[in-house]
Amino acid sequence: MKSQSSPGLLVRCILGIADTDYLRAWEQQCALDEVQANIREITALKAMTIAEIQYRDGRLKELSGELARLQQPAPLVANQTGAGVTAHETVEQRFTPLELETRPTTDTAAAWYLRKAPQTLRIWACRENGPIRPIRVGANLHWPVADIRRLLGVTA
């Protein structure tokens, strides 16, 4: 018997725990793709009987509702001041502004500073063809803050 594993589990293993925002966005996109594929499949059905037509119409209504729910913007969460912000905006608050960064290297913040997906930076490191090179510490990648500043034209 084949073992059923979710693609999200594989992605979690590859990306690691640190990329929860990226993983959440990836899972959201997978769910959207699946619902859209189901809608295409249902609309392609040639319903012949009244029961088939009713099933198709009911299923299309369910899938349309699911699609609308998935396409809604991120829910508001309360920040430290109690004001409502989107979940994406709370990510910004986790990272020190690049001008104020005092550490010589950074790990996950590098992708945020460069406005790239974390996986893009991993690909740069793997292929050694990106605009900056990481410092490898075991299995972790640390990106020099000085190189990020130079690339973005930011002064300390």
Descriptive account of the structure:
The model is unreliable at 77-92 (pLDDT under 50). The protein is elongated. Helix 1 (7-15) runs antiparallel to helix 2 (20-44) and helix 2 (20-44) runs antiparallel to helix 3. A 3-stranded antiparallel beta sheet has the order 3-5-4. With 156 residues, the chain is mainly alpha-helical. It folds into 2 domains: 7-77, no CATH class; 95-152, no CATH class. The termini are far apart. Strand 4 and strand 5 (140-144) form a beta hairpin. The protein contains 7 helices and 5 strands. The protein has helices at 7-15, 20-44, 50-71, 87-94, 109-114, 118-127, 145-152, and strands spanning 76-78, 84-86, 105-106, 135-137, 140-144.
List the helices and strands and how they pair.
Layout: H1 7-15, H2 20-44, H3 50-71, E1 76-78, E2 84-86, H4 87-94, E3 105-106, H5 109-114, H6 118-127, E4 135-137, E5 140-144, H7 145-152
Antiparallel strand pairs: 1-2, 3-5, 4-5
